[in-house]
Amino acid sequence: MMPANNADQLHIACAADGKYLPHCAATLASVFACDAPEKITVHFMHSPNMDRAARDQLFDWIRAQGATLNPLVIPDEAVSDLPRIPSIPQIMWYRVLLPRLLPELDRILYMDADIIAMSSLRPLWETPLEGQWLAAVDNVMEPHVRKHPVELGLASENDYFNSGVLLFNLKQMRADDSTASILEFARNPGRKLSWPDQDALNIVLASRRVHLHPRWNCQNTLFFCNHGEHTFGKQVMQEALREPGLLHFEGYHLTKPWHYMCTHPHRDLYWKSRKKTPWPKKNPDGFTLANAVIRPLPTAWWPLAFRIKNRLRKLLA
């Protein structure tokens, strides 16, 4: 039987399609390495058409680690009419449904499948949420999108949070029917959303949010440029870099630790975690002869190198 509001139990929600299943497993492996699996319940959200063999591999592995598993099958029609972007499947909307999916729980920690835990999640899990809908970390905004939060209707840039790590106050969200508000906003055909699920979550929930330290969602941007200093200040950014609790490999495909071109200083932690899963083989995406030539170059040269590569590909096609 699934533990409900047991003070000792840490409830984690995650979601994946077939492609992201190994990455989600790596996330969970990193969590199990930092907190006792027997004190963790994994609420795994997936579509009805997920490959059964691969799904069962994940489920059997989670149980073998000693964690409790609560599978949550999301009907396709529940999210099929919601806006999307080509690079992210509709599973991005599953998190919005958690207050309805888990009526017995007061809170849940949701994590994307491109995250690696580096410390116990207990301090995060125990964050006070009284009267607030959630706790989350500010989204690091690059200069060309810094106006986006205000254009959405938020008061300032720092009112916009990143949705990769969310500590939801499910009890309060149910009381206020936040899920209905988010879905209503998202389904409005007049809305133009850059990051559909994240924008909708922010519009509805940002006004009652606990601001978390960026160590609990240590985004890629903190490692590669100084935009994080603009968002958090130099001292707080350095604290996050010195002691990250959750690494978030957000961004486009080259920034993912499973991609050959990823240069993140902690990318090997992903492979270390994945080695403990049913998908241990190290077989990076994007491993080609052309990329093998480009990767040793200074990253400032990469845009030009990629343009040359694409030009040659067209000429040889």
UniProtKB/TrEMBL annotation:
Domain of life the protein comes from: Bacteria
UniProt keyword annotations, A-Z: Glycosyltransferase, Metal-binding, Transferase
Record carries keyword Metal-binding: yes
InterPro entries: Glyco_trans_8, Glycosyltrans_8_dom-fam, Nucleotide-diphossugar_trans
The keyword Transferase is assigned to this record: yes
Transmembrane intervals: none
GO MF annotations in UniProt: glycosyltransferase activity; metal ion binding
Record's protein name: Glycosyltransferase family 8 protein
Source organism per UniProt: Stenotrophobium rhamnosiphilum
